[in-house]
Design goal:
Two copies of one chain form a homodimer.
Chain A (H helix, E strand, L loop, with lengths): L5 H11 L6 H13 L2 H17 L1 E2 L6 E2 L5 H4 L4 E8 L2 H9 L5 E5 L17 H9 L5 E4 L5 H14 L5 E4 L15 H9 L5
Parallel strand pairs in A: 3-4, 3-5, 5-6
Antiparallel strand pairs in A: 1-2
Helix pairs in contact in A: 1-2
Amino acid sequence: MSFFPAALDNLVEKFASLPGVGFKSAQRLAFYILSLPEGEAKDFADAIYEARNSVRCCSVCQNLTDTDVCAICRSPARNAKLVCVVQSPKDVAAIERAREYNGRYHVLHGVISPMNHIGPDDIRVKELVDRVAQGDIEEVIMALNPDTEGETTAKYISRLIKPFGVKVTRLAHGLPAGASLEFVDDATIGQAIDGRQEM
Amino acid sequence: MSFFPAALDNLVEKFASLPGVGFKSAQRLAFYILSLPEGEAKDFADAIYEARNSVRCCSVCQNLTDTDVCAICRSPARNAKLVCVVQSPKDVAAIERAREYNGRYHVLHGVISPMNHIGPDDIRVKELVDRVAQGDIEEVIMALNPDTEGETTAKYISRLIKPFGVKVTRLAHGLPAGASLEFVDDATIGQAIDGRQEM
């Protein structure tokens, strides 16, 4: 039984439904909302509504966008023959921050994960195959996380798109910048040795 | 520089403005909102708007309510001659849960705290004095936290309302239920000895 007004209980419940927010935190956040000036609370509500309604997936690369097609797919300055496949929009942001890549993207919105009942049909694989099938793409770079699920997904996709004659590459694995050999894990050192390059 | 749609950045910023929510958490929450069915995202936005607009302070006891006056102040079953003074609406909920108290409340919405520049005029002291001045109240129970700020506030209020001939009491201090003497702090043991009762 609660001793707060129904609207407050409802807000606490909503906050508690967010991932990683427990009941006590939800209560704290709800009380904070009550303490806001009315305009700011309204802005918060509008921001949720607005984000959910205006943000969608680009019909080409599946990245989040508020225009269709997205700014990267639209830009004539980007190399349309090069596509970088990533797991999530956050990865696009990470690669863009590095200012090294000038091609387009394809966001899968997940990776194949039998443990979590996520198969190829649950992520945007078909959309990628369709893009490759159109024949304008020369190279697809797999930029998935270097873990079991990422590797599995990369191999699966690679098998699907190679028949179209596209070159499939993946990000180099090895020592991260600034690493200290002493503290790098065995798997990374092994990959760095395997992938050694002539100087 | 951000690489997300503006509406998403805006939502991340709003979440990050909440107390105890950092940038990475805010980003996680905003992405979660995007993943919700449209109806649920709208419900969330509405819950914020609704809570902020329908919840106000009871004009008598200052507790949060969506009716004026609140259910407790309105109830003929509660003893109107007994008022329990608490720091926040959460304390009302805590006392109600104990099902021991049958009087009304007065919520201060804070305690006097010179360190945080909160003086008597910043909390609902005047409203309490006005209630007591009307003459219908026989006993005021101070149920503030047993720390320096709570004690100071209780003493300050006590001095203000005693001249009206009202009885002022405070919650008993001593061992919490189920405590193990071995692990109880010195101050609590001292208070339990001071306040010892005949069996």
